[in-house]
Amino acid sequence: MKTQTIEIRHSNPYCTQVWLNRPDVRNAFNDQVIAELTQAFQQIAQDPQVRVVVLAAHGKAFCAGADLNWMRDMAGYSWEENKADAQALADMLWTLDQCPVPIVGRLQGDCYAGGMGLAAVCDVLVAVDSMNFCLSEARLGLMPATISPYVIRAMGAQAARRYMVTAGIITAIDAHRLGFVHQVTSADQIDEVIDSFIQILANNGTNAVKACKQLVKDVTGRLITQELRAETAKRIADIRVSDEGKEGLQSFLNKRKPNWVPSSS
Fold first, then answer.
1. Bridge-based pairing state of the strands 169-171 and 132-134
2. C-alpha span between 141 and 203 (Å, rounded)
């Protein structure tokens, strides 16, 4: 399905691909892109058949940040209009971040400013080795405020301090070294790498993958107290006695594939 700013593909029953589709403006986003991405991921979150989402982009760049025409309009906005506009972007990023289905980011080209926010909410991030990243807002007298919670979480506070205040270029190799990118590959191999992650995720327990994603969010930054120890013990007990947990254990003991593995695997 094509909209005006994104393309949604269903490559198989369990994988949905969301493609930014504004290559003529380097997939820069505006209020329409924000609205369409929000709606798309709200629908994906409610679809029990979807087990993997690929976030990708057409053209030479993954996302150049904000659209220039949109920025021209914002130059004349009041404080209240700017706040509402920024809130929509913040809510869009939150929607993607809260999607229970794992998101695999396919970064085939440069990723600047707000585009780094989109990259940072991905659970698995694959980047082409020739691309660059940049938190370029300070060059314009601005700051990467709405994307900051996700970028800082993904690359760490110390690295974020450097690249936010300097607006310096981050190569794909450096982004990998910082832990922001999980795997770097060549342009001609990126689809093979993405397909391998799709298959890996589809072969894992559907509910277990979602539970793992939520577990990381819930445990990160917390002190290892008695309360946390009890909570994590409860979670593993709950999933062990679930239908999926029982099936996974029995399939392992009986040396067969669990019933959730796609027939093509």
1. antiparallel
2. 47
Residue entry with tokens 């991405």: 37
Across the range 228-247, mean pLDDT stands at 96
Q: With CA atoms as reference, report the closest residue to 143 among 121, 166, 159.
A: 166
**In the chain, % of residues over pLDDT 70:** 98
Q: How far apart are CA 139 and CA 44, in angstroms?
A: 36
Q: What is the pTM of this model?
A: 0.94
Q: Between the CA of residue 168 and those of 65, 136, 137, what are the distances in Å?
A: 15, 7, 10
Instruction: Enter the tokens of residue 19.
Output: 């493609």
Contact 239, 211 (CB under 8 A): yes
pLDDT of residue 3: 56
**How far apart, in Å, are the Cα atoms of 75 and each of 78, 117, 144, 154?**
9, 22, 17, 30
Residues 175-200 as b/e (b if ≥16 CB within 10 A, e otherwise) read bbebebbbebbeeeebeebbeebbbe
Q: How far is CA 209 from the centre of its chain?
A: 15
Q: Which residues pair with 125 in a beta bridge?
A: 105
Residue 2 has pLDDT above 70, yes or no: no
Domains present along the chain, CATH in parentheses: 6-200 (3.90.226.10), 205-253 (no CATH)
